[in-house]
Amino acid sequence: MDKVYFFESGLPRSGSTLLSAILNQNPDLHCSAISPALEVMYHTEQYFETSEQALAYPKPEQHHKIISSVIDNYYSDIDKPIVVDKCRAWPNNVDRLQEYITKTPKILCPVRDVVEILASFIQMIHRNSNQVSFVDKALKDKGYTPTDDNRCDYLMCPEGIVDQSMYAFGEGFRKGCEKYMHIIEYNDLVKRPEETMCKVYKFLGIPEYKHDFGNVSNKYKENDDAVYGLSDMHQVRKCVKKISKRPEEVLSDYILNKYSGMEFWRKAKQPINLFI
C-alpha cells in the first residue's frame, strides 16, 4: 500500500502525545510514538558519504533509493493509508524530507509556554518520586543536587530535551520553512479541541474526522519506565481538558524570570535569532 506521510514535531510536554492519541481515532490514520526513522536516514546518509567501501565504488542512485526506502520499511507493518511520523528534529531536517520523502512536507508542531513546559516536567518528576528520572540521573552524573531549579536549568541547557527541541523548532523558522509547519498551541488543543483539530485537518488537506474528545487513549505507549524513569511521561487523560497548575504554583521566581518570554514563534515577522 502506498502511504501518504505527514510529520509531528514541536516541543515536549506540549500535547504531542495527546494530539497523536486524538489522530489515532481516525481509522485511516496511524500516528506513531517517537520514531527512529529520521536518525536511521541521517546515519545511513553519513555512512554513504564517509564509508571507504561506498566511496571506493559509489552508487549514488542506489544510495538515494536505500535512504528513501527507510520510512516505507519502518511502517511496513501499518496497513493504513496515512502515517504521521513523530520526531522533534523534523523542522531542522526539511531538506531531508524533501530529498527522500516528499517535496511538500507537512509538520504538526505542538507548542506551549516554556515555563508551562518546565512546570509540567517538575510536577511529573514529583509524581514519580519512587523513580530516578532521566533528568535526575543526568544531574547526579554531573555532581549536581536534583533540586527543581537545577532540573529546570538542565532541561534548558544545550543537552536538555527542552533546549534541543527549541533549537530544532527554531531552525525551521530560521531556514524559512514556516510554510511546512503548522503550530498547535497546547492551550488551544485542550480548551478548544474541535476547532483546533479542524485546523489540523485543513493544514494536512485530508477529510475531517469526528473525534470523541471524551474518550481518548494512547494506543502506542513508549517504554517510559526503562527509558525515562517516568512511568506516566506519555500518559493521556481520557477527557480532553486542562487541569495543570499554573507555573507560578510550581516554579521559583528565579526560573520564572529566567525562562519567561521565550516563545519566539509568536513574534510574527521578527527575525529568529535566539539560537545564534
What is the gist of this entry?
By secondary structure, the chain is an alpha/beta fold. Helices cover about 45% and strands about 10% of the residues. The C terminus is likely disordered.
Write the layout of secondary structure elements.
Blueprint: E1 4-8, H1 16-23, E2 29-34, H2 37-50, H3 52-56, H4 60-68, H5 70-74, E3 82-86, H6 94-100, E4 107-111, H7 114-127, H8 134-141, H9 148-155, H10 161-174, E5 181-185, H11 186-191, H12 193-204, H13 224-228, H14 253-259
Parallel strand pairs: 1-3, 1-4, 2-3, 4-5
Helix pairs in contact: 2-4, 8-9
User: In total, how many beta strands?
Assistant: 5
Instruction: Give helix and strand order, one letter per element, not per position.
Output: EHEHHHHEHEHHHHEHHHH
Secondary-structure class: alpha/beta
Low-confidence stretches: 269-276
* Percentage of residues in helical conformation: 40-55%
Shape: globular
Q: Quote the distance from N terminus to C terminus.
A: 43 Å
Query: How many strands, which pairing sense, and closed or not: the largest β-sheet?
Result: 5 strands, parallel
Alpha plus pi helix count: 14
How many whole angstroms does the radius of gyration measure?
Answer: 19 Å
**What fraction of residues sit in β-strands?**
5-15%
Q: What do the pLDDT scores average to?
A: 92
Q: Can you list the strand order of the major beta sheet?
A: 2-3-1-4-5
